[in-house]
Amino acid sequence: MSTLLDLSKISEWGLSTTVAEFFYVIIGLIFLMVGIKALNDSQLKVRIFTALFWFILAFTFIVGPYLPKFITGLCVLAMAALTALNKVKQSKSDVPTDAETRAGADKFGYKVFIPPVVLALTAVLVATFWKQLGANNAIGVSAILGLLAAYLVTKTKISNTVTDGTRLMDNVGPVGILPQVLAALGALFTAAGVGTVISTGVQAIIPADNRFIAVAVYCIAMALFTIIMGNGFAAFSVITVGIGLPFLILQGANPFWVGALGLTAGYCGTLMTPMAANFNIMPAALLETKNKYSIIKAQLPVAIIMLIIHIFAMYFLAF
């Protein structure tokens, strides 16, 4: 067993890592409950496979730091196979009736906004004034305080946290883990030298000394690669190394404007892709829209206009 679990890392953890692992365990327990929810749905034909997906995911979150990397990799491949074979489905949920929803809205009114406001303010304050804890942990701390605020406002049963939490995660489904997977893929692309390959290819597209074309190619590439990756940060490292550095910064562009506007140009792509599940698919699940791509369709015109503005802004501000 000692060859599979490496517990020596615990002694090296600081405050930020220790708190982060606590929240990862909590997240893993949520995944575990989603798997149990699937197992309890006798009408779900693929309930065993669905539960297996969530159990594997919970396993990686709870004991991931102590596992050899190849085991985590096998877990990821197993989850990918289950998803690709369409073996992960949403199980039956206890959804409030329209009458119950209307009654709740009439009872609490604008008070329902108190928990999310508490969550947002707490996240900002913790991230700003408790920097040792880390920005990611600030989200976890704010979620706990937001949950407590929800209890105080609604006086609901504690068990509803489990019921609604698992229902929400089940609605989102496997796409909920895309941010982690795509961020890892971005790091892999950077290490593999994809940026260098892109740079070589772009040399044939950008005319010599044409700054506007160089800016346009960089911004559009940032948006397109973000659409593929679903993560602007992952795209930024690859596209900036491949295009931004050799064709803009080394040609005299201000690195500040290239970096700042390059990243937000990538965010224009975030508005246009289902790969950015936490921004586009999750809100659709929260709103229970009939079309899971309705958020993207609404954002698409704005995203295109913003991308065009980014091209002209970078051209005039960076040079």
Structure notes:
- With 319 residues, the chain is mostly helical.
- It has 3 domains: 8-84, no CATH class; 98-156, no CATH class; 177-318, no CATH class.
- 72% of the residues lie in helices and 0% in strands.
- It has 14 helices and no strands.
- It has helices at 15-39, 47-63, 69-84, 98-108, 114-129, 135-154, 159-172, 178-192, 194-202, 211-229, 232-247, 255-270, 277-287, 294-318.
- Helix 1 (15-39) packs across helix 7, helix 5 packs antiparallel against helix 6 and helix 8 packs parallel to helix 11 (232-247).
- The longest helix is centred in the first third of the chain and has 25 residues, at 15-39.
- The model has no long low-confidence stretch (mean pLDDT 83).
Backbone structural class: mainly alpha
Overall mean confidence score, pLDDT: 83
* Structural Rg: 22 Å
- Topology order in helix (H) and strand (E) letters: HHHHHHHHHHHHHH
Domain count: the total is 3
Into which percentage range does the β-strand content fall? under 5%
Q: Which shape, going by the Cα principal axes?
A: globular
Helix content: over 70%
Q: How would you sum up the major sheet? A: none
Beta strands, count: 0
The quaternary structure here is single chain
Q: Which descriptors would you attach to this protein?
A:
319 residues, mainly alpha, 3 domains, 0% strand, globular
